[in-house]
Amino acid sequence: MNIVRVAQRTVTVAQLHQHATKAVREQMLQTSPLQTKHDQFVKQPAIRSFSMSSTRRFSESSDAQTITLRSGHTLGYATYGSPSGTPILFFHGVPSSRIEPRVIDGLAKKYNARIISVDRPGIGLSSFQPQRRILDWPSDVAQLTSQLGLKDFRVCGGSGGGPYALACARGIPTADSPTILEPPKLTAVVSGSGPWSMGTKGMPLFYRLIFNIAAWSPATFGWLLYRVIGKAAHTSDDATLKKKWRAQAKYISKRDAAKLTEDEMLDTLVSLSREAFRQGSRGVTKEYELLTRYWGFDLGEVKGKVEMWCGEDDRNTPLRVAKLMTEQMPDARLHVVKSGTHFDMEEKVFEEVLEALTKK
Known about the structure:
This protein has 14 helices and eleven strands. It is globular. A nine-stranded mixed sheet has the order 1-2-3-5-4-6-9-10-11, sandwiched between helices. A two-stranded antiparallel ribbon has the order 7-8. Helix 8 crosses helix 9 and helix 8 packs across helix 12 (282-291). By secondary structure, the protein is an alpha/beta fold.
């Protein structure tokens, strides 16, 4: 859908905005009323409360760990794979959370990889930061790796986590100076989102519409997001949440839609949704808003080595965009996955990705 076609729907968007303003104003407050609903209805025995008096806290589960940033904000993360393996920082997609790589825990152990998967602000265990930018992420990563004592690590970003991985490939502040930037040894991007300036050509009509709504009116988008997924994520009713995800099948490619009929995929989406919307819709809304803004850097500034993977049949993050991105980065290579879609990349390429990231 081009801008002209989207513009024809602005009356509908304006009407939605009138209904959304009051609800979203509450969600965007620092204390979200949705958190109360989440605590009341959703049981999460693996996660306990964390004190802000200490720099680093652990729960009994590797799924729920936190550090405190210099700003006082909390940064949540989970660890998978081999505790003594090659450290890989993993940045999840949207809407998703730190527990996304749980499904490749066994594969990570096979390749002796220690995956450290991080919640972005407003997602899962990480504090909401209303003024954050994509380019702020490397500073948070630098503080995390410093507190974990990591000197040598790799980075991997999937889907909406791709821009954050590339921000790190541009450079992460060093311990000596926040103005000295060094990229990780290798950055992997799997089905990564591209800059908004590259357009939405090749994406499903529905996705093109919602991204345009997120760009023009984040408040309206947040209200819609809560109605479509967020509200269901704040109940203990798995069946309703699965029904919400199955309803998305009509908006995506047929092959990806088929994945939404699989019990294992739906169970995964339920877990990811509950964490993504743990604090309400504001964190996820901010994610989509930032994807439709200038990232704060040009791809030509990405000086680190980057390996890109994209399915030739991916419509969420089209191959057209992956090719353009690869051409603009100084040291990037694109792996085109034959017949690959957006939802089947885990089974098709993650073994290859981990093999590349764990090479000495």
